[in-house]
Amino acid sequence: MNWFSIRYLLLGSALGLGGCVESYTPDVPAATQNYLVVDGFINSQGSTVVKLSRTLGLAATGSAPAEAKATVYIQDNAGTHYPLTESPAGTYASAVQTLPPTRQYQLHIITSKGKEYLSDLVAVKTTPPIDNIEWRLEQDGVQLYVDAHDASNNTRYYRWDYTETWEFTSAYNSSVEFKNIAGGPPAPAGAKYIVPRTENIYNCWRTEISTAIKQTSTTKLAQDVVTDFPLLFLPLPNERLGSKYSILVRQNAQSQAEYDYWEALRKNTENIGTINDPLPSQLTGNVHSLSDATEPVLGYVSAHSVVEKRIFIDRGEFPQGRLVYSDALNNACQLIEVPKDLSIPEVPTIIIDNALNVFRQPNILPIAITFGSGNSVIYTASTPECVDCRLRGTNVKPSFWP
Amino acid sequence: MANFYRIILLLGLLGGRLVSHGQQGPPATISGNFQQLPFAEFARQVAATTPYRFYFNPTEVDSVRVTLQATAQPLNVVLRQVLQATPLQFAIDAEHHVYITTGVPIDTQLPADFFQVPAAEAPTPPSPALARRAGVGSPAASKVYEIGQAQPSSSGKATLSGRVRDAKSGEPVVGASVYIESPNIGASTDQFGSYTLTLPVGRHQLFVRGLGLKNTTRLLAVQGNGKLDLDVEEDITPLKEVVIEAEKDRNVTSLQMGVQKLDIKTIKQVPTVFGEADILRVILTLPGVKSVGEGNTGMSVRGGGTDQNLVLFNDATIYNPAHLFGFFSAFNPDMLKSVELYKSTVPARYGGRLSSVLDIATREGNRKQLSASGGIGLLTSRLTLEGPLAKGKGSFLVGGRTSYSDWLLKQLPSKSLSSSAASFYDLSAHISYDFSDRNSLYATGYYSRDRFRLATDTVYAYSNVAGSLKWKHVITNKLYGVLTGTFSRYQYSLASERNPTTASQLGYNLNQGGLQADFTYFLNSKHTIDFGVSSLLYQIAPGRLTPLGENSLVVPDALSTERALESALYVADRFDISPRFSVAAGLRYSLYNALGPRDVLTYQPGVSRSEGTVTGSTSYGSGQVMATYQGPEYRLSGKYAVSDNSSVKLSFNRMRQYIHQLTNTTVVSPTDSWKLSDTYIRPQVGDQVSLGYYRNFKANTIETSVEGYYKVMHDFLDYKGGATLLLNHHLETDVVNAQGKAYGVELLVRKSTGKLNGWLSYTYSRSLVQVSTGTDVINNGAYYPSNFDKPHDVTLVSNYRFSRRFSVSANFNYSTGRPITLPLAKYTLNNAVRVYYSDRNAYRVPDYYRMDLAFNIEGNHKVQKLAHSSWTVAVYNLTGRHNPYSVYFQSQNGQIKGYQLSIFAQPIPTVTYNFRF
Asked: Could you tell me which InterPro entries the record lists for this protein (chain A) (predicted)?
């Protein structure tokens, strides 16, 4: 918590006195420049992956345009080149390799238009292992902590990113689907029918990659020890904790310069431009254009290894009676009942009736055939986001999932 | 009352003219037969036959006809008979002078103590001077005060000095104008109420004028050097808050420029957001003074930084004059008398800050009786007690103020807010004591403390301590000196206990002790010389990190103590070359020594200082001088009176500043610390030249001025990107020296008297910064707008008094939006959208516009009343304008969206109750 938070506390109370927040659109000419963005680092023990893209106007939607067909390679201070190949467009990867840790490295980029860019030479930092990832149930949620240490006191600057994966279900488990039965008699060609569902679209896994910059330094401590660094907080109840949750934490050792770069980037992005905050830095990084020294190039290319550690949190690990799981989207789902027209004879395993017209609409999926009031037969149905979990994840079980 | 003045007139103009000459002899009786005789003729006949001599105004007696028969009757019997049907009265003195007056008989005998001359009277004993402390009320006005002893060899001029005091409370009256009209010679009283005039020998009428004072006159017969203390009555107002302002024509006649003086009455009229009178917020309405943000008392004077203002509380420096994040100023308004802001001509007596000196003076306590006053507002309450000491030879004044914002926070619905705490209080005390007419002692103490905690996390606390002790000694009539000792302390701490491994406390402590001697010498009517010497000793513990609890792994860390001595000598002469043309020349020479013990790192020359360019270190022993900076500071000003009510002034000023505030936010925050100049951090130096034209209208009731200035500032601190300011053992690697320039024009129209009073000002000003050292460059080394650059500013502060009990105040403020660094483009890095920013301060936030209204309602004005009270009902931001307090950007669905936060976006009503008994 810092001074800014204090001010926001005050602002919070001031809002009670009549403050307000409203939209502000500065009168800024559309940024005509589009600068090169270099996103990645030189992995000293593995594959180096670098994404090249361009900057976008603030109001633009969509993802940043990729910088394709560039020539990219790592070079060390002994003159050795380690090439990167492009796949897909804008993403360049090297072979899995181990770089000699005593050398210094830099990234060399030649764009398809022939402009050359070079990052500064940097030394390799070797990342120590993650000691522990721990979670604790706190009053309002689950706090995840990470511990690490370097007995040789060399690391000092740590940065983490992580990938979260969790298993979830859609609101309704659909046992039937509305489908074209290819060649199945006696259905007319091109018709669709309600048939038993063969693919599970009820159980899925969702994966999210961290966006926050999480880093710390131990320079103020007598030993190079990180204890209980608060990596992530999951407020309860949480959609992630329906059955099983997993987090893969990647630990990166950094130089002080890289730490400073990320710290400045964090300040620039996480408190974007509050007028009373520290002035945002005109932050670029350590990549430079060889043809135009004044051209801004964004990104910091460091060289280090990465260590990973994964933990799982099972819903059963929480105390009884604690409200752990809640899925706002599923909670909003409603079941629709569609009467089945029994006047039309049934074909074995294939059902044809007027209700099928309902299912020709794209925004409704059948769930099951069941009995309604007065022993009438009905279809239950709902919207796709309540039935098809693949809209929020994948139904392919990840390889690491137990 | 009026009759007394008429008598004076009568005596002065007509006295003796109608005296009849009679024979010498024993007291005679009246005999004769008078029929319808005009009174004048009657007097002539009586005078012809008796020793009596008549004095009267012929116009008052011309209707009186005397018809009587008398045989050897005493005159008093006869006159009683003659005048019984008229309003005329008579009086007969021992010399057989008969005075005829209307209404009230003249007192022919002097009061019993008339000839008792106070012990420390005129400088030439034994003095026959008739002067004495003039009594309360008008009889004093009718008296002729003889000043001094005739000196045959004298140059025809004499020096008159003395003090002006409030007749009711005995407090000195500051800034009152004491003058004679022919020739036009005047002076204003200083902070002790003292004045000195050099007058031609002869008879004069002396006037004392001041805002909130009854106009007071004295008749003088000046024969030689002497002393005259004056008790003046305040103009009738229900509360004792009216204190004196500068003389009306000070705007035109004074030599100073860029000086604004506000009395507490003006300050209390201005509506504020939480209903409490706030001096700093009123100062912010003056031309050339800009706020750094709504709800913040940090100020920029003429484009300077927030650390370039010297805030003096009875001469003791206050380092953080704000409470509760800057929403309140740290001074109890009931304690204050006046506030004076010097923004261009800074007297040579002051130094140490580049942009301005804010001189805050407390009142003196009531010397006549015990009284109390206070106020109850929405967030704070205050109480002040005052009374006489040692039978009116001295007085005390004690005030306290506290907030109940803790209580308010607990009422808020948000959990993180209700579990937070924010509280503050301040205490101040002032004692004055006159040992004799020549020796007075003044002591002031001040303490303020703030503490706040957010939810369960860090606890912040800071406090100011300040004290001053002054001894004023009148050496001769023409020379007096003040010896002042001051002490200031500012400290803050932040403690975090959330994580046992990193639980720690960070403390900062600044101590400043000072000693100064100031003398004023009235050489003659053309020269007034001020001179003095001062010395300040600083000791700063710039940061100490200590672990909290057994499990804390935090390594204790302490930055080495900074010590320095700042000394100065000054002499200034005000030279009145002619009644129209005068100049003031001051020279201050300041010397600064940074003192050990300390290990100073050395760096490779010619490259940016960083940890990577350290070459070694030099060790300095305790008290050893590490770095010395010194230089002259010129203070020149000149005034030429174009006419009686207009003048042109020119001034040049140089200031040097040896202590710097470290802050990387633009608002003032409690973790801002102060850093002394050292081997690498050079003192700031600023030069300012200004030119002004001043003109008063309507008998000095409306003053107008135009002032232009240009100033350059060298070596103030700016920061490298990502600078670490806390616990930095080598701060020189994180700061850069910036250069600045500022210029502007300020227009002011001010009306200080009458039913409608207030001021209207317009300012055009620019403030630009350049960072272009060999290694560190911002915006390619070009000048860019500073955070305080708001070119256009219009301020109206007004008060209209409908009656003695009801007045309305209105404020209006417009200014250009402050500069901002805007995001220009976005890009994706490490899976998140990032922002690319413009050049520093290349854009501006929307303009600022606000209007406030306040109604002041006084209780009835009965003198005999337990408590006098008043209510203030105010509405802040009447139009509910959404002024941006903050502009920020957030990433939403892949788009970067801008938001503006307005903290007072609706009209905010407040009610305050003030009392005094």
From this structure: DUF4249
Q: What is the pLDDT of residues A190-206, one digit of tens each?
A: 566 778 888 999 999 99
CATH of residue A280's domain is: 2.60.40
B468: amino acid identity, one letter:
S
What is the DSSP code string of A55-74? -EETT--SPPPB--S-EEEE
Among partner residues B502, B664, B896, which is closest to A58 by beta-carbon distance?
A: B896
* pLDDT of the residue at B241: 36
If one counts the domains in chain A, the total is: 2
Domains delineated in chain B: 2-102 (3.55.50.30)
Contacting residues of B for A263, CB less than 8 Å apart? 722
How does strand A122-125 pair with strand A303-304?
parallel
Is residue B892 within 8 A of residue B349, CB to CB? The reply is no
A388 CA to chain B: closest CA distance, Å? 23
Give the C-alpha separation, A287 to A2, whole Å. Answer: 32
Residues B161 and B144: their CA atoms lie apart, in Å, by: 17
| Range B302-330 average pLDDT | 86
Q: Does residue A293 belong to any structural domain of this protein?
A: yes
Give yes or no for residue A343 having a pLDDT over 60: no
Q: Which of A22, A263, A299 sits opposite B882 (nearest CB)?
A: A22
- For residue B10, the one-letter residue type is L
Residue A46: domain span? 32-119+269-301
Euclidean distance between CA atoms B544 and B673, whole angstroms: 13
Cross-chain Cβ contact A282/B837 below 8 Å: yes
Do A340 and A275 fall within a single domain? no
Structure confidence by residue, pLDDT tens digits, B891-909: 666 677 777 777 677 787 7
pLDDT tens-digit readout, B188-220: 788 788 888 888 888 888 888 776 677 788 888
Radius of gyration of chain B (CA): 33
- B473 or B122, higher pLDDT: B473
- On whether the pTM is more than 0.80, the answer is no
Q: Residue A230 and residue A143: Cα distance in Å, rounded?
A: 7
Directed axis angle between helix B39-49 and helix B75-83, to 10°? 180
